[in-house]
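Tutorial, part two.
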Amino acid sequence: MKKMLPFTRPTIDEETIQSVVEVLRSGWLATGPKVAALEAALSSYLGGRPVRTQTSATAGMEMALLACGIGKGDEVITPALSFVATANVIVRVGARPVFVDVGLDSRNIDLDQVEAAITPRTRAIMPVHFAGLPVDMDRLYAIAGKHKLRVIEDAAHAIGSAWRGRKIGSCGDLVCFSFHPNKNLTTIEGGAISGGSPDEIKTIELQRWHGQVKSGVDGFDTLIAGGKSNLSDVAAAVGLGQLRHLEEFNARRRQLVARYFELWSDRPPVRLPERGDDGHSWHVFTPLLPLDTLRISRPRFIEAMKEQGIGVGVHYPAIHLFTAYRELGYREGQFPNAERIGRETVTLPLFPAMELSDVDRVVEAATQILQGARK
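Running the prediction step on this input gives:
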C-alpha cells in the first residue's frame, strides 16, 4: 500500500520546535510573554485591532456572546451547517439558536433567510466563513446595521481570508478564530477574538481568567464568575512560528485547490464547492458526492479511499438534525441545502506539505471509485 495521505496535517518547522523547547526551559509555561507577543503579532497582522487569545474558538465565541450581553430569552441567527460548537455556545449562554439555510456551493449563510428570520428577540447574527470563503461582508453588516444587531463572526476556518482586500478580523464586530491542529494556523489548541470595545475586551479578559483582577503585590478581587481559558506560552510559541508562515501556507493551499479544479474541469464526478477568489484561504476542500447516482454510500467511498491510502473527512453534518437540536423543535426538511451537504460532503486531503502529485493521486482514486460505482 502507498504511504497514507491524511486529509489534513499541520506543518511545524524546526525553528518553531526550538522555540517551544526554549519556553519549556524558561520555567514559564502558562500565560506569559509569548502569549503577549502572539496577541501583538496577530493584532499587527489584522491591522492593529485588539486581539485576545483563548484555549479554543469555542471558548472565544462563548465569551464574545457574553461580552455582548446575550443570554436568556435572546435569539442568535446562525447557519444550520457548521461544526456544532457554533450553535452550542449560543445554547450555553442561555439564548436560542435560530437556524437558517446555507448556499449549496458556498456553504455560507443565506443572507436572504437571515432577514426573514429576524424577530424582536434577535440580538445577533453569527455567520460562518465556511472553509475560509468569506461571507458577503457588505450585505451582512448592512443587515446588522439596519436591525441594530451584533455580529459575532465564526472565523474558525478563515485566518488569512480576505473580503475585497480586507482581512477577515481586521474589521467588523467581534471575530473569532480557531487555532486547532487542523486549521491554517495552529497553536496546538487555541483561538482568538479580534475586535471589541474596551469594556467588551475587559469582559473577555475576566471571562478567560476566573473574573479576577489584581491590585498591588498581593491584592485580588473576583468581579464575575468567570471560567478559565487562558492560552499557554507553549501554545503561543507554536502560534508565533505558524504566523510567520501563514501567507505561504495559504498560498500553497490555493495552488493545491487550483490543481483539484484543473483536474476536475471537465464533467467532474463530484459537485465542486464555490471557488471564490484570492481572498479564500481554503481551510478544507469539500466536494459533494452525487449519492443519488451511485451504488455506494459515503461510508463505503471513505473506506474505498482508505484502501488506496487516502484519508477522507466529513465537514459537517447539519446541526439541526442532532438530538440536542431536535429537542429544541428542529426537524428534517427545514434546511434542505444544509441537509444535502451533510449527507453528501467529503473532505479531501488539503494541507501545505502536499505535493501537486498528491492531488493527482486523490483525483485519480476518487474518480475511479465513483465512475465504477455509477448506477
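The longest strand covers residues 75-79. In part three we will examine how such features are distributed along the chain.
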